[in-house]
Design goal:
There is one protein chain. The chain has 470 residues and is of the alpha/beta class. Helix content is 39%, strand content 21%. Strands 3-4-2-1-7-9-10-8 form an eight-stranded mixed beta sheet. Strands 12-17-19-18 form a four-stranded antiparallel beta sheet, sandwiched between helices. The protein has a four-stranded antiparallel beta sheet with strand order 14-15-13-16. The longest helix has 28 residues. The structure holds aspartic acid (ASP) and magnesium ion. The site of magnesium ion has 4 residues, from loops. Aspartic acid binds next to loops.
Amino acid sequence: MNKKNVIKIGGSNLKSAKSILQIVEVVKSYEHPPVVVVSAFFGLTNKIKKSLETLFNEDDTLGSLYHFLYQLKSEIILEIIENPEIRNQTFALVEDQLNKLRQYLQGIFYIRHIPEKANDYILSFGEKLSAIVLNGIFNDKGIAAETKFPEQVGLLTDGVFGNASIKLNLSKENVEKCFLGNRVYVVPGFYGVSAKNEINLLGHGGTDYSAAAFAYCLGAENLDVWKDVDGFMSGNPKHVAQPKPIDHLNYDEAAELAYFGADILHPRTVEPVRLKNIPIRLFNVFNDHANDKPQTVIDNRTSIHPEIVKSVSVENNTGILSLRGPGVGYIPGILSEITKTLNIHGININSVITSQIAINLLIDKHIIDKAFDLIKKLKLQVITKASIKKNVSLIAVVGSGMTEAYGVAAKILSAISEEGINIHLSSIGASDVVTYLIIDEKDTKKTLSKLHATLFKKDFKHPVNLFVKN
Ligand code: ASP
Ligand code: MG
């Protein structure tokens, strides 16, 4: 049997009738029917989130959310689906979901509290609705399609609400039996189910991660991510002059770039597919998809560019928690006590940089205050000074071969010092593919544009991939 392709359709490709019809063409361009994992319609997840925030203090949030969803789906169904039977069927399925959602929202409204479990359940409707509508559209346009929900096929999670991990091997046993037909399957992304059969979200932008998990479970040929932009670039056009597309990355480079805010992929997308060496291919719907040429391919090969560096990017969510005191570096047990406490409270440490007199923890800004309080409560005698810094940005310079190539770090550091920019912390050599620097947030644009201009020659192209043996 032919291996399937799993394709992911993002919310930015589900904006209007026109963009949805482009997706129909994309799906038709595959020789064998793919599994299509979909995001919610553009902006919908945020709209539902906002409604939940104001549910108890604004009049009729519920009514207006419900009305909005109903309108959105009806407009799309009426505009695109021509066959009256398919149209009515799709309407009925949407109504059925919206009724479930309405009952749930009303229940919450009465108890005046949104449990985590309810939050995840409610937000999953964005994806469920787009899957149902897209399925109807495919059928109407002559593509045999069937919808499968993650709870029907057993995409299993670890039970964490809001930011779950997928249990790949358990899921595989369930999922591989469910996609055997010779038709397109449409699956809502962004969530899986726990062993208790409760819905768990996979974090912001989590449809990439669910699509990657489905690719793993099905041993897919490729994971194709369809977007409305040109894949990974040497820099964000908002920050740097003339960024160039990157046609190849290995899994490590892509994971670092996704993690450091390149905003192209969910940071965990690489995890499942690399286990089976399934390539991720990024396509732009606006380019000619008939020629089947991805913008970026991500796989296990390593390519070295003449510039070594492939991309510079920024992440603005990380702050620094500094703990100082003579000997924090050599007195045993300090770091383990801190990490144990943070771990119990579910706080992730993004990175640690230590010296003999300081421990610096990089932690997400939105939870850094909580981490600070927890550490203060430990009353560790050796720590004489503790502080946090939030108005910082983390700059990542990514490219394979960085630690072996001569002079890359020197180029980076001297470019920054020429601009008079202060580096609070840096890490060079922790991994072979990334150097990162923490600078004041106000210097972000200056740093990125200077680094890009220094590291890439003006007329550089990203063509010749010199593949090296891993
Ligand atoms: N709709 C979800 C979000 O915006 C998941 C996704 O689009 O990947 O976070
Ligand atoms: Mg998205």
